[in-house]
Amino acid sequence: MQQIRSQVTERDGLFELEAGSDVLDSPRYNHDMAPTKVRERTWNKWHITALWVGMAICVPTYTLGGVLTAYFGLSVGEALLAILFANVIVLIPLTLNAFPGTKYGIPFPVLLRSSFGILGSNVPCLIRALVACGWFGIQTMFGGLAIHLFLGSVFEGWKSLGGTGEVIGFMIFWALNLWVVIRGAESIKWLETLSAPLLVAVGIGLLVWAMPNVSMTELLAIPPKRPEGASVVSYFAAGLTAMVGFWATLSLNIPDFSRYAKSQKDQIVGQIIGLPLTMFLFASLGVIMTAASVKLVGVTVADPVTLIGHIQSPVWVAVAMALIIIATLSTNTAANIVSPTNDFQNIAPKVINRTKAVLLTGLVGLLLMAHELLKKLGLIVSDVSLETVYSNWLLGYSSLLGPIAGIMVVDYFLIKKQQLDLAGLYRDDVYPAWNWAGFVAFGVPVVLTLLSLGSDAFSWFYSYGWFTGSALGGIIYYGLCVMRAQPSVVKSAV
User: Fold this and answer.
1) Residue 253 and residue 109: Cα distance in Å, rounded?
2) How many C-alpha atoms does 59 have within 13 Å on its Cβ side?
3) Which domain holds residue 274?
4) Where in the sequence is the signal peptide annotated (predicted)?
5) 6 lies in some domain
6) What is the pTM of this model?
């Protein structure tokens, strides 16, 4: 006989839900969104480290140094420091927002129900999902190019397809990504674990290939592209904000992964080992490779896929492209599909399961890249480049996501005192449908950010958007919750 009321048990600081009919029959629950059982939390610190190595080693990371020097007016040395500092900074919201995922086994959308409401959680979820779908499309474009170059190195006739071949490669890589995620969290864990050492080996190999053709002294001495005599502070801070924005999305939905961690120690140590150093080293590699590309292939090339495509040996091109395909796959599945899959399910868990949500993610990502795909097929002509799109996104979307990060941290640690009603997060009778404190705390920084775009005096508010947004969002949320005397601890209703 099925139990009517759900029960929550604790094992070594990890909480587990035995769902009764009150939760199982709720429209806010499905199997894929349910809290993980303690026995399902199998990711140790090395799995978490591999996750970050797999996500950080990707084409966009490789090009970050170039983005900072070309678009943000930093020197090479300043750019690399900005990348390192940004990833140390982003560890703070990453580890803090990972705590409730590990403790309660809940994904990001379910955690948001505490701060934005049972129904209100869909608003920040969909904001997060749209950005992820865009990045999914961009990464799939890189993966599709790698497949195109791989097939061109194996089959001579394939090269003549040109842009059409790239579109075919895009669709192949698109389907491969969806297949991996549909198979579930364990397939992602093993993909990341197996790909991490391969990706490190690729980085070392590229470095050995490039170093004889570049002078680090000359590279670091290249003057920055900013007005002569201009203060480095504002340029560095803007670049730092953009680099924080690179993982701003993951700092929100990290519970989607930390819900599988064995312990808080595992998620903390794994992230510390895996993120900052990997990002710094691979971005440094990108700077070195771009500088060396003139001597290596005769022209300046800013991305590794195109650079390797210039190699004359078909065998080495095939091997390198196969490894880049693995690198992009490991990044894309974890960073850009898992979150929107959970976010879309949160809209109507009884109607949208994981498979449907993955397909919806793929469809949105495909539509967002339709412009670029039509360009490659020669059906439209446009000067808009992918590099311009994602370098502008880095600053723009981080300004929107900052307040959400601040609100989540304040809600869990200061308002709820790390105590959530686990069963109540899946029902309609404990938490409000809409938590207006969350929306006011989110809306005020966003409105101020948009207004600052038209004001020279307050342009700094946009330029430092993630920092200003997260701080202001957290402060406003805390003030509103204190004023309405919200209980600091939600009593268990199980």
Assistant:
1) 8
2) 30
3) 38-396
4) none
5) no
6) 0.87
